[in-house]
């Protein structure tokens, strides 16, 4: 599975978790999609670089109206077997 497809699968799992908690689509924003090569440098030839695959990342920002839902979502997303970072901001 390539990096872009893997990233899409992860985003779909996150979106499903958000839907399960009745988060309105207007409160969800994806941004900062990025894909870049995973490179391996050959120590015997200083100029030789081989692309061994690709990395992909994406940011999902969610506005949640109550702190309980926020805590549950953060716990759910953090338990997914992918690199995630959950941060919370309290807006008034």
Keywords:
92 residues; alpha+beta; two-stranded antiparallel sheet; elongated
Q: Could you describe the 3D structure shown?
A:
The chain is α+β, with helices and mostly antiparallel strands and 92 residues long. Helices cover 33% and strands 30% of the residues. It has two helices and two strands, in the order H-E-E-H. The chain has helices at 3-20, 67-78; strands at 28-41, 49-62. It has a two-stranded antiparallel sheet. It is elongated. It starts with a helix and ends in a 14-residue tail after the last helix.
Helix content range of the residues, please?
25-40%
Derived structural class:
alpha+beta
Spatial strand order of the main sheet: 1-2
> What is the total tally of β strands?
2
SSE string = HEEH
Rg from alpha-carbon coordinates: 17 Å
Shape, please?
Answer: elongated
Distance between the termini: 42 Å
- Major sheet description: 2 strands, antiparallel
Strand content: 25-35%
Which regions are unreliable across 5 or more consecutive residues at pLDDT < 50? none
Number of helices: 2
Tell me, rounded to a whole number, the average pLDDT.
Answer: 80
Topology:
Elements: H1 3-20, E1 28-41, E2 49-62, H2 67-78
Antiparallel strand pairs: 1-2
A few lines on this structure:
This protein has 92 residues and is of the alpha+beta class. The protein has helices at residues 3-20, 67-78; strands at 28-41, 49-62. Helix content is 33%, strand content 30%.
């Amino acid at each position: 599975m390539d990096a872009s497809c893997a990233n899409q699968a992860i985003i779909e799992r996150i979106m499903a978790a958000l839907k399960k908690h009745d988060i309105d689509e207007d409160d969800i924003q994806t941004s900062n999609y990025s894909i870049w090569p995973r490179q391996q440098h050959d120590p015997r030839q200083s100029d030789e670089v081989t692309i061994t695959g690709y990395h992909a990342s994406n940011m999902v920002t969610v506005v949640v109206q109550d702190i309980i839902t926020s805590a549950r979502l953060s716990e759910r997303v953090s338990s997914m077997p992918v690199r995630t970072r959950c941060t919370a901001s309290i807006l008034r």
